[in-house]
Design brief:
The complex is a heterodimer of chains A (288) and B (379). With 288 residues, chain A is of the alpha+beta class. Helices cover 14% and strands 28% of the residues of chain A. In chain A, strand 4 (76-83) and strand 5 form a beta hairpin. The termini of chain A are far apart. Helices cover 19% and strands 19% of the residues of chain B. The chains are: A alpha+beta (288), B alpha+beta (379). At the A-B interface, helix 5 of A face strand 8 of B.
Chain lengths: 288, 379
């Protein structure tokens, strides 16, 4: 009779090997491990990130609600996390051949997001944007916002370098001495900015905080997150930092989910690659 | 998907939301035969609403030459090619094909497409280009052998808007008080699903604000009982704004009902798409109806006959009503003919304007006896 090694032993061995070494970095296959550190960094290229284990999160199609994404694009995002006790930072790295950070008709933007349960709904909301009375908090980074934060001018010529415009009403000579009147005139032709739509206008941080109770319910939330994204040889490397949620501690784990949008594949909104909930634990302090 | 009644198709159809008609529905009639493509409407809209950053390319109102003009490029041809079999019943009373809602592919709410950047780069493509050929010995006849016509377009403020249906987060709404369709600029997140969904391509993405924007039907004017900017600035007086009644509630003293539902001389633009658009066109009389039938539905031949008969056979009601186009800034809710006088009434039932059945015409003799000279009479 042929002897077989129990599957559980094989799995444990595989995890052990993977954890031990993977290209010089440790890998955590089953959970996102947040490592306590003296100081967190927003710089995705900081060597501190490489000292911590990463989780290769497999992405699946958002094919639950219309409009759906039916052809897979980004297959995996590598996640590394650290915390200084007050802030928790996640570094997301994924392969993307093209840099898409210029908006326009039929032009879509590279982006990524992290999703956590809210303080009130730690009992695991639906992974797809939460559900009614079980909200989720989302921090969303976009490549075009990063470009603006990095200094790209808020002008049409940033998008269309050869554009010429004869005249905007708010550039009238009579308004030059009255900045308030000029701003009011400018907002007449930009109602989204006038209404304070987070999506619109110059940005100070490349990350937007949102809350949702199911698909289609995404709403702006108070800005608490920040971040920074850079292009790498392979694609994007982005750090998103936010306050440590009250329900997450060394003693109490939680869950997290990720989403990636690839602009070149015309992914936007619900057309995205996403994960389900992944266990999130704080473990392995520097001085422990 | 819900089942809703689309009177323009003569049948029920599938739609993302249940049927919920507004209390009043903004509607308009454009007489194509009177449009000269001066683009005054386009500029009136442009200077009023879309002079901001990111709006440079937007034409909420545009006038394009058919058959070769488009804005954006090939906006109608692309969808017509995507939409299978667009047959109507033999009597024209029922659409037998599928709408863009019924043809939605897997994973989508509507059948649609998004224009590329370049598709917006040629707003005057095909301008004044003729279709057809004039061979030796040809003479002017009806319909013309060589033809084109001008198609002025705004948002159709559809009863079943595809933009509204396509928006996954409910950022587009139809106002119950007037049926005007708006993008909530505070809620929109710029996914461009509405741009993709609208078959008329009358929603535009603003790269500077990160939101989509569209014709707002000049609702601040509508709320004051006034017609939109593109209507009142039309020098050809081709447009009339008003209200269309719910199916089965049409009234002959409502100018839009009279033209659309009673006389049936004004027809929807591509009714087969299934949106129940609320801008109606009096089709061009000089164009082969093999072309216009696809654009305005099977009622084209009858509409042209009725339109031509208004003058030729002395249909004073219809002739008189056409005289109210461009006669006042007020929205006309009712109208009446008394002898040779046509009167339009506003929403309050007050007289807004009166026009003669026929404008008085005087022809000056070419020879001026007083000064003993001959003059050329120019129209």
């Amino acid at each position: 009779m042929k002897k077989t090694i129990p599957k559980i032993v094989l799995l444990a061995f595989a995890i052990l090997v993977a954890y031990a070494s993977c290209g010089g970095r440790t890998v955590s296959l089953s959970e996102v491990v947040v490592v306590p550190d003296q100081q967190i960094t927003l710089d995705p290229t900081d060597g501190a990130w490489y000292a911590h284990p990463y989780h290769p999160a497999k992405l699946i199609l958002q094919d639950m609600v219309e409009p759906r994404l039916l052809e897979p694009s980004t297959v995996e995002v590598e996640v590394t996390a650290m915390t200084d006790g007050k802030q928790i930072a996640f570094r997301l790295e994924w392969v993307d051949d093209s840099q898409n950070d210029l908006p326009g008709p039929q032009a879509f933007i590279d982006g990524c997001a992290i999703q956590l349960p809210t303080e009130e709904s730690v009992s695991i909301p639906a992974p797809q944007m939460g559900e009614e009375h079980k909200a989720v908090d989302i921090a969303f980074w976009r490549a075009d916002w990063q470009a603006i934060v990095d200094g790209r001018a808020d002008e049409i010529t940033s998008i269309y370098p050869n554009a010429t415009v004869d005249h905007y009403p708010f550039d009238a000579e009579s308004l030059k001495k009255d900045p308030d009147a000029k701003r009011r005139m400018e907002q007449r032709y930009a109602p989204a900015r006038r209404l304070g739509n987070n999506r619109s206008g110059p940005r100070k941080v490349p990350v937007e905080d949102l809350r949702a109770e199911g698909p289609g319910t995404l709403s702006p939330a108070k800005t608490v997150s920040t971040g920074k994204g850079v292009r790498t040889e392979k694609g994007w490397s982005v750090v998103i930092s936010r306050p440590v949620p009250g329900f997450l501690s060394k003693e109490k784990s939680s869950n997290i989910a990720f989403a990636i949008w690839q602009g070149a594949n015309r992914e936007t909104g619900a057309r995205k690659m996403r994960t389900g909930w992944i266990p999130l634990v704080i473990r392995g302090a520097e001085n422990e | 998907m819900a089942r809703v009644n689309n009177w323009q198709l003569g049948r029920e159809m599938s739609y993302w939301y249940p049927e919920e008609r507004p209390n009043k529905q903004f509607a308009a009639v454009f007489d194509i035969n009177k449009c000269i493509a001066c683009q005054t409407c386009t500029l009136a809209c442009k200077t009023t609403w879309t002079s901001g950053k990111g709006q440079e390319y937007m034409l909420w109102n545009n006038v394009e030459t058919k058959p070769y003009g488009f804005y954006p490029l090939s906006w109608d041809l692309k969808l017509l090619e995507m939409l299978d079999g667009q047959e109507w019943s033999e009597d024209g009373g029922r659409y037998e094909g599928r709408t863009i809602f019924e043809s939605a592919p897997a994973g989508e709410r509507v059948l649609g497409w998004r224009p590329e950047d370049e598709d917006y780069s040629y707003p005057n493509v095909g301008e004044d280009d003729c279709a057809g050929q004039v061979d030796g010995g040809a003479s002017i006849q009806m319909p013309h052998m060589a033809w084109f016509y001008y198609l002025a377009r705004i948002c159709n403020h559809c009863t079943y808007p595809a933009c509204l249906s396509a928006c996954p987060r409910g950022s587009i709404y139809k106002r119950p008080e007037d049926g005007i369709v708006l993008v909530d600029q505070g809620r929109c997140r710029g996914y461009q699903e509405c741009v993709r969904g609208c078959p008329y391509k009358k929603v535009f993405y603003n790269a500077m604000t990160g939101t989509s924007e569209k014709c707002i039907g000049c609702f601040p004017k509508i709320e004051q009982g006034l017609q939109p900017q593109c209507f009142v600035n039309c020098i050809g007086k081709i447009r009339l704004a008003g209200w269309i009644s719910k199916p089965g509630e049409e009234r002959p003293d409502n100018p839009i009902d009279y033209l659309v539902r009673i006389k049936k001389i004004a027809l929807p633009l591509f009714p087969q798409f299934g949106l129940e658009p609320n801008v109606y066109y009096i089709p061009p009389i000089h164009v082969p109806t093999s072309f216009t039938r696809q654009m305005f539905g099977p009622g084209v031949d009858a509409a042209i006959e009725a339109y031509k008969a208004a003058g030729a056979e002395g249909d004073d009601d219809l002739t008189g009503l056409l005289g109210l186009f461009g006669s006042t800034e007020e929205v006309l809710a009712r109208w009446k003919r008394s002898g040779d006088t046509i009167t339009g009434y506003n929403d309050k039932g007050e007289e807004a304007v009166s026009v003669p059945l026929r404008e008085p015409v005087s022809i000056r003799p070419s020879y001026d006896k007083l000064y003993q000279i001959t003059r050329v009479n120019c129209p």
